Write the C-alpha cells for this entry.
Amino acid sequence: MRMIEFRLYDLRHTWATRAAESREVDMTTLAALLGHSKLNMVMRYTHPQERHQAETVERLEKANAARQIAEFEEKSIPTNSPTLPRNPVNFSDSKTEDKPNQIN
C-alpha cells in the first residue's frame, strides 16, 4: 500500500485554488492574502481544474453572445420611427371571423 505524503502547504495550494475558482477574489487580492508580492507566485499556488476552465469558457461565450445580440438589436431598431401600439387592432375581414378555422 502506497502512503500519500501530505504537507501543510498542500492546504495552502488547495485554498488558493478554491479562492481563485470562486471568482470572488481577484488575483491581486489573492496575492496579498497569500503574502506574495508578484502574481507569478500566485500562479504557482493556483491549479484550476478542467471543469472550472470549461465553465469559465462557457460563461465567456454566453456573455459574448449577449453582447452581440444587444449590439445587433441596437443597430436594427430605428431611433426616429413611430412607436407601435402595445395592443394592435385586428383589421381582419369580419366575414372570416365568423368562420371557424379549417385545416385543409
Observations:
- The chain is about 60% helix and 0% strand.
- The mean pLDDT is 77.
- Helices lie at 8-21, 27-34, 39-45, 50-76, 94-98.
